[in-house]
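User: Hi! I have a protein structure encoded as tokens and I'd like to know what sequence might fold into it. I'm fairly new to this, so please keep things simple.
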């Protein structure tokens, strides 16, 4: 007889493990199934984010930033370090340690919250007369468990170029790009999105010549136009080559090199020869092996699980969250949906506000934004007022030696409600939280301007940008 649970979560990424913990906190008997393991077969909960995404990439970004600082910026602080050497195996090893700490932390949280964890692949195997669902777990041993509610949180996987499969040795997804055994002399990146820019930045800092090819005509079109222009200027100054508006031809791969023919935005025929190629052209929902047909779970024409605004699928008591459903593929979006679904199952009113989900690119300078861009608001013919403040005029940024970028706040021209905040510069990923809070409470630019910010801090740039909305900045 199979074990009966109130809630079974398939997938232990940010959406899944958080949903499981929250459901358990609300008194439910919960199981979470995850197939990710290391080479020895030990479980590695945390999904793409923890294992080959957010966490390891930030670890490498931090290490490579230290290397960059030691090589190029310590001298201006009066620090002489001599001949700086890179021990890549140690750097990669530190990344792996950080990942394992997060894996172990999730397993600890499962035990703490009395969530039963199953290491293996979970799939639907049928529906009982009482409305419960049978879930088969295929791990070191095969077993079947039963659930009143099922939350699918199976995430996404990298999209490959047609005819060019990932081998994770020469043609790399985000996974292989995190563990290149030696710094390539020349590295190509197809796709100037978050993953392409972050991983391109890592290997450029470590010594690779990096060329990024982007099909879209505009660089970082998802960002505010001013932010995108500032970012491209900064990346170009660092040595990251970015070409937009390109059309990729048939890629040729040999044992020693990869040749990428492409047509530039001006119609010129070019050819890029690289040692390694990172392909970061987006991600697709992962439903492989879920056996959705066994219960009739509906997918759309792009492979996403179809859900309503509350993450309900077409099946009673089956829910889906995170990358496997509509909306931005962001770990924090998945977490919020996981919490909301757990609370809905418990009879509460979980809520996710898609209008205030922040986005971050962890390059140097960092880029972060929430709400709408100036170009989007103008396209809507919305009456707005804009204030910005450069980090060049911020005392803390000067002391840090990092004055690139600015804070930009967009508010409604009449009500002063904050409609969007766009930051490029030091610690943008942390500064954006204040903007999210203000926008959640339908706050005004004046609210930010009237809040006392500690001095000297980078957050003062937020206050000054808010003051600038009303043309009364004090330090610029």
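Assistant: Happy to help. Inverse folding works backwards from shape to sequence: for each of the 476 positions I chose a residue that suits the local structure. Here it is:
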């Amino acid at each position: 007889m199979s074990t009966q649970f109130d809630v079974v979560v398939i997938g232990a990424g940010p959406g899944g493990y958080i949903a499981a913990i929250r459901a358990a906190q609300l008194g439910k008997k919960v199981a979470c199934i995850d197939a990710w393991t290391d080479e020895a077969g030990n479980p590695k909960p945390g999904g793409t984010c923890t294992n080959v995404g957010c966490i390891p990439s930030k670890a490498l970004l931090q290490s490579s930033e230290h290397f960059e600082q030691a090589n190029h910026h310590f001298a201006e602080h009066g620090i002489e370090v001599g001949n700086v050497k890179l021990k890549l195996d140690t750097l990669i090893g530190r990344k792996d340690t950080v990942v394992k700490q997060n894996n172990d932390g999730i397993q600890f949280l499962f035990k703490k919250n009395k969530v039963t964890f199953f290491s293996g692949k979970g799939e639907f195997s049928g529906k009982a007369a009482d409305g419960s669902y049978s879930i088969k777990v295929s791990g070191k041993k095969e077993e079947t468990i039963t659930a009143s509610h099922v939350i699918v949180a199976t995430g996404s996987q990298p999209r490959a170029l047609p005819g060019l499969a990932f081998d994770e040795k020469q043609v790399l997804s985000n996974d292989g790009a995190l563990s290149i055994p030696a710094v390539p002399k020349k590295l190509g990146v197809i796709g100037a999105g978050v993953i392409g820019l972050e991983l391109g930045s890592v290997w450029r800092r470590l010594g690779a010549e990096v060329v990024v090819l982007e099909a879209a005509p505009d660089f970082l079109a998802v960002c505010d136009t001013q932010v995108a222009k500032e970012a491209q200027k900064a990346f170009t100054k660092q040595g990251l080559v970015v070409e937009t508006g390109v059309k990729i031809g048939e890629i040729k791969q040999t044992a020693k090199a990869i040749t990428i023919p492409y047509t530039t935005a001006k119609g010129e025929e070019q050819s890029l020869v690289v040692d390694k190629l990172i392909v970061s052209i987006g991600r697709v929902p992962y439903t492989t092996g879920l056996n959705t047909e066994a219960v009739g779970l509906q997918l759309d024409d792009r492979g996403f699980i179809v859900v309503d605004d509350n993450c309900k699928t077409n099946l009673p008591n089956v829910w889906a969250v995170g990358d496997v459903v509509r909306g931005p593929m962001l770990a924090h979006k998945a977490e919020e949906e996981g919490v909301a679904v757990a609370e809905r199952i418990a009879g509460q009113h979980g809520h996710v506000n898609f209008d205030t989900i922040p986005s971050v690119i962890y390059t140097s300078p960092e880029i972060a934004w929430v709400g709408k861009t100036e170009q989007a608001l103008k396209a809507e013919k919305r009456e707005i007022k804009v204030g910005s403040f450069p980090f060049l005029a911020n005392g803390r940024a000067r002391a840090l030696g990092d004055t690139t970028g600015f804070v930009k706040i967009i508010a409604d021209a009449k009500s002063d409600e904050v409609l969007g905040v766009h930051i490029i510069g030091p610690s943008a990923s942390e500064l954006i939280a204040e903007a999210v809070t203000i926008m959640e409470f339908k706050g005004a630019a004046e609210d930010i301007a009237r809040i006392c910010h500690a001095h000297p801090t980078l957050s003062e740039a937020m206050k000054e940008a808010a003051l600038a909305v009303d043309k009364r900045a004090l330090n610029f």
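A useful reference point when you look it over: Residues 88-112 form the longest helix (25 residues). Feel free to ask if any position seems puzzling.
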